[in-house]
Design goal:
Shape: globular
CATH topology of the largest domain: Pyrimidine Nucleoside Phosphorylase, Chain A, domain 2
CATH class of the largest domain: Alpha Beta
Distance between the termini: 38 Å
Helix content: 40-55%
Bound molecules: uracil
Strand content: 15-25%
Mean pLDDT: 95
Structural class: alpha/beta
Order of helices and strands: HHHHEHEHHEHHEHEEHHHHHEEHEEEHEE
Low-confidence stretches: none
Strand order of the largest sheet: 1-4-5-13
Largest sheet: 4 strands, mixed
Number of strands: 13
Length: about 425
């Protein structure tokens, strides 16, 4: 087989066979096919697309490119939840302790943030002492004992995705449905879970900008997961606004803790309860209404917060910080951003908010950048709120003052103020089963 012929075939809009797709992924993972040819193929896929069969073959080839995890010594049904990436999305920190409190097991491998989107692993590392690199045997022991553990993705899991993702990131080929499906599901299927709930984000802060594209993505991920024998469900949720009020690592963990204490922002609480209820339904804990009630009870009676505290302690972190979040370090500097005029916030560009947070030091521009855990943004006003000129829209936090001007400018550019109250848009736009 010649890589030239495979690229040409896809460039001409033809369908690739499973054998060809596997040959490319195996050859690329072994270093036998160079980056430039795979980059050309990714661009051909970007323009010509792939059908469901090709996408499934690509997903399974990515899954099989490295080590597969065996969780058979974790007792009970294992569940996972995956978000396609957004701004202010700290749902895993809330949802996973809720479902673990109700007897399902969560052995979660999460990623770091890159670009304008945040990552669960970075957020958890803002807790003093918390380890995200624990050995797999200890990881499984914590899951058996506490119900939940969250660690970083091992380098051996779906290595083809690591290579492909880095290549796509620098060749403008990230936002392609077959490439996203195979990247996310390739990794998820290499882990050993029984049920997977996907939170497919749609809107300016996500990779898919329209509900139709997000639905297409969700349907294929659900279908391919089912073909691999998993119980699957996907929620399509709005990312035209950041989720909750906090953006940035320590700020988001504190907001997640407040949510587990029952004092979280309404949008974040609503989405976390819905995600938890869908996971519990897949785990056959009852019908949706029952699962929703059970999820709410774990917040009201404090068991979900206790589960998070136990997980933090088991992973080396300061448990007391979970009960007393005022112990999280606060940024040395802060600056309020004021409304430039009277009016309603009629819409925001969530990606712009993510970039504004990045400019304060809350994220990375390159993989080598060191994150300022205290940096980020707290939003005092969100879409639909009425402002008077001079009211505080947001507070910026950073341990350095030099990012404030650019961050403030980006945040104001991303905030549209108008005369009329905008129509309220639902947060959960669809459920794909
Ligand atoms: N997240 C991933 O892991 N891969 C993608 O391609 C997009 C989002």
């Amino acid at each position: 087989m010649r890589m030239y012929d495979v690229i040409q075939k896809k460039r001409n809009g033809e369908t690739l066979s499973e054998t060809e797709i596997r040959w490319v992924i195996e050859g690329y993972t072994k270093g036998e096919i160079p980056d430039y040819q795979v980059a050309a193929l990714c661009m051909a896929i970007y323009f010509q697309g792939m059908n469901l069969e090709e996408t499934a073959a690509l997903t399974f080839a990515v899954r099989d490119s490295g080590e597969k995890l065996n969780f058979s010594d974790i007792h009970g049904l294992r569940v996972d939840k995956h978000s396609t990436g957004g701004v202010g999305d700290k749902t895993s920190l809330v949802v996973m302790p809720i479902v673990a409190s109700l007897g399902v097991k969560v052995a979660k491998m999460s990623g770091r943030g890159l670009g304008h989107t945040g990552g669960t692993i970075d957020k958890l590392e803002s807790i003093k002492g918390f380890r995200t690199d624990i050995p797999v045997e200890k990881f499984k022991a914590i899951v058996n004992e506490v119900g939940v553990a969250i660690v970083g993705q091992s380098a051996e899991l779906a290595p083809a995705d690591k290579l492909l993702y880095a290549l796509r990131d620098v060749t403008a080929t990230v936002d392609s449905v077959p490439l996203i499906v195979s990247s996310i599901m390739g990794k998820k299927l290499a882990a050993d879970d029984d049920c997977i709930v996907l939170d497919v984000k749609t809107g300016s802060g996500s990779f898919m900008k329209t509900v139709e594209d997000s639905r297409g993505l969700a349907e294929w991920m659900v279908e391919i997961g089912k073909r691999a024998g998993k119980r699957m469900r996907a929620l399509i949720t709005d990312m035209d606004r950041p989720l909750g009020n906090a953006i940035g690592n320590a700020l988001e963990v504190v907001e997640a803790i407040q949510t587990l204490k029952g004092n979280g922002p309404e949008d974040l609480t609503t989405l976390c309860i819905a995600l938890a209820a869908h996971i519990l339904c897949l785990a056959e804990k009852g019908d949706y209404a029952t699962c929703e009630r059970m999820a709410k009870e774990t917040i009201a009676n404090g068991t979900a917060l206790d589960t998070l505290a136990r997980m933090v302690q088991a992973q080396g972190g300061e448990k007391e910080w979970i009960y007393n979040p005022e112990r999280f370090p606060v940024a040395k500097y802060s600056r309020d951003v004021l409304a430039p005029t009277d009016g309603y916030i009629v819409g925001v560009d969530a990606e712009g908010y993510g970039v504004a947070s990045l400019l304060l030091g809350a994220g990375r521009n390159t993989k080598e950048d060191v994150i300022d855990m205290t940096a980020g943004i707290y939003l005092h006003a969100k879409t639909g709120d009425c402002m008077r000129k001079g009211d505080v829209i947001a507070t910026l936090y950073s341990s350095k003052e030099d990012g404030f001007a650019a961050s403030e400018k980006r945040l104001l550019q991303a905030t549209k103020i108008g005369k009329n109250k905008p129509e309220e848009k639902p947060l959960i736009l669809d459920v794909v089963e």
